[in-house]
Structures are given as C-alpha cells and as structure tokens.
Amino acid sequence: MTGTLPPLSVTTVRTAEHTVLFVSGEMDIATVDKFTVAAREQLATGPVLLDLHELSFIDSSGLRALIGLLRECEQEGWSLGVGKNLHSNVKQLLEMTGMLGELPLQDQELTPEPPTTTP
Predict the structure, then answer these.
(1) pLDDT, position 28
(2) CATH number of the domain at 20-106, out of 3.40.50.300, 3.30.750.24, 3.40.190.10, 2.130.10.10?
C-alpha cells in the first residue's frame, strides 16, 4: 500500500431495535483497540449490529478482536450481528480464514445511514 492509510472510524447510531456501529477505514494493530472498546461499550447496553461495508482492510489483530467479541457475547449473553454488506477486501479475508461462516450475518436493508462525522 502506498500513501496515507485511512484512519479507523467507529460511529454509533441507535435504532429502536439495536445500536449500529459503522466501522470504516482500516483495522489493524494500531487501531483495533478503538473498535473493541466501542463494541464492548455498546454490547453491554443492548444488541449491536456491526456495519463493516466501509471497512476496507482488516489484519489478524482485527480478526482476533472479532473472534474475541463473539466469545464474549456467548459468555455475557450479548447480541451481536454483522451486516452482510461487506467490503470485498474484508469479505475475501473472512472467507479465506473460514471466519465468514462463523459470523452472525444479518440483512442491512433497514440500517440507517451513518452520520457524517470526522474520525
């Protein structure tokens, strides 16, 4: 990759059914904690849907974070869904690692648009 990497942005939108976490940019060892903290905070308050369609990159630390969140959800009784509309780069990695079939994928037809904010 050349140039400046897009920073990770995590934006929260509450709906009547759940909280949507819009995750965009690149999730790697330098940014994964921002994602993990935000996801845990929201999961502790109710159901969460991860919208990853603008997440253009995820490395092994991001995969590890997703696996950890899935385990925590089982232990804590939290509800986590992942929107089916994934960036092609992320979807390919999830398929190659066998993680795609492990994620609780959900339709995103009623997902609100993320607010426009700066990271």
Answers:
(1) 96
(2) 3.30.750.24
